[in-house]
Amino acid sequence: MKKTGLILSLLIAAQATEVQAQLNAANEAKVAQLLNSMTLEEKVGQMAQVSIESMGAVQGKTFAFDKAKLQDVVVNYKVGSILNTPGPWLGTKEWNALLTEIHQHALKTRLKIPVIYGLDNIHGVNYVNGSTLFPQQIGQAATWNRQLVFNGAAISAYESRAAGVPWTFSPVLDLGTNPVWPRIWEGYGEDPFLISELGVQFVKGSQESLGGKEKVAVSLKHFLGYSDPKSGKDRTDAWIPEHYLREYHLPPFRAALQAGARNVMVNSALINGVPTHINKRILTDLLKEELDFTGFVVTDWQDIENVQRRDRIVKTNKEAIMLAINAGIDMAMIPYDYKGFCTDLAALVKEGKVSEARINDAVTRILRVKGELNLFDRPLTFAKDYPRYGSAEFERAAYNTAAESITLLKNGNNILPLAKGAKLLVTGPNANTMRPLNGGWSYTWQGEQTDALAERYNTFAEALRKKFGAAQVQFEQGVAYKMDGKYYEDSIVNLDAVVQAAAGVDAVVLCIGENSYTETPGNLNDLTLSENQLLLAEALIKTGKPIIIVLTEGRPRIINRIEPGAAAVVHTYLPGNFGGDALADVLAGDVNPSGKLPITYPRFTNALTNYIHKISDSGQNPQGGDFNPQYPFGFGLSYTTFQYSNLGIAQTALTEAETLTVSVTVRNTGGRAGMEVVQLYVSDLYASLAPDEKRLRGFEKILLQPGEAKTIQFKVPVKDLAFVNADNKQQLEAGEFKVQVGELTQEFEVKKDLIF
Ligand code: BGC
Q: Can you spell out the DSSP letters for 710-740?
């Protein structure tokens, strides 16, 4: 026993030294020295984060600080961080001025510690005028293209620093497992491997050479298990056993932490009745100790308060603060009650209810990241040093991402691409508005001002007119979102006119889906597409004209009533400001679609099973069962065809220390160049915990000219095929496995058991 204990502690010590070694020694020394000189009030202030809109007033198109309030926050209470948009649509120079003013106040404090500003740069620097808006994360995931995600992150980091902001509340690494949840589109889909691969690229693109003036610190959101509420409603209880949490929800965070992510934001909801903000096992034992996280943990919006006012764990906010800080929270996004937080936390320390050591740990982490960002030496960055901000080059990158995200889900009789001279009717609530293309977190939190602020970009109708000729493309509204109603309310607009217009065209481009929303306002009781949009589609299908459904939506709305009547279905997700141009290029055949679904598209509202499921949820269930989504995960058509052959496994009996090597040849058998996402799935055929039917273990996106063939090789460490057992350990079991690429399959064997 004793000996094991000794070996274990030696191992932990060795690991700890390794982690320490990765930290910058000079920065560590500086932070330690600074911490030594700090009073309790100064320390507590560093742990507070206030929202900017509470610190001033909107004046016309601009925002002005209330000087007394700014003084109170930064100088009197020594608050260490500020977040959010002040409201108006400000340009980089105005942002520079706000951050300068904040810093001038920081300089009035005894220790002159810079304030760290954080912004929700969700799909670009969406709160700053003139920035480059990319497709939302779900669309980026549909590209299955690591490089595009890296580029997007690097561009957004650059543009964020042009505004002066060194910290982004992105990426969302939540598992998109419940399609009802209103934040599905903020993530990279439903598969842990896909999310991990893209999340790592986002971290690298944002943070590589952290400290450089073009880089920002990321915030991994929302640790952990946020995305699977039992009700599907935002910020409600999830029931997730720990081994499922570790098997499915944890891997993307683990991978992004290994890639060096410096901040983590906490799950705003509860798991198994425990608000994550007071869950020490998750925040300290798992994140900081087991995963060796040396950055800092920030709460989500008002979530310490929520422990008291929403979850009723304790009667007072002060007790909630105690529980949260002791659980491992380092910084509290208050966002308004900084006085209460600072006063209560200082009192808790004096009362011995929160240890000074815990405070020192929290402040060390915050100062460490400030130092790593070089904020002590370069507290401010200015627009003049960022000439590529909003440039054509960056816009091109956003366009490319949109173009590669578009996913062709149905193409009956190869109706697409359309002939260049085709006469078209463009209709539907999403046809001539920029708001649904961008979704939430665009210009404003809910994206309701997008049409006014993104006027210079092309809607679907405008882009199609440019592509096919104004005389060839007619627009009819069909259904409109109610501008003064809730985001999901819509109404029919002159259906007769739409049907009449359809009579004179070759094809109808029907643009349907959702209006913008995010978080709790996006909650939903029925995943079915709105009744008015279904009625519009049905009226058009009756005309007998080919209907091309264009979906633009944050989550997969059920379309089984109209899908069979559609000639083609094209999914655009939330493609951003270049979504119109990208769609027009796809419909015209100038871009060959190559997006693949990063989520399962369900067929029925009561059948929301993901592609990751047990055999009992599949058609293989001997007692009867089915898995029959509208479109499966990983699916997407092309204007060309691909043939898979020669699936080979280098070595078909492997030990746990070896690597599975799979090769396959893919040939473009059609008439035009195209990109294909080659996907490797592995199934564990028998396991002591019911195995998943199959799991994605590798993917590569390749470009093939007509007739061209490429052989792809995947390498998967055998250890990665382990599952998390009911004791929360990784377990690899000897026995047969199956690989699948396209329709090809082959088996191999793992020779020995391993638990680690
Ligand atoms: C969201 C976070 C976001 C934060 C700051 C919260 O309501 O859940 O994702 O980063 O606000 O704006």
A: EEEEEEEEGGGG-EE-TTS-EEE-SEEEEEE
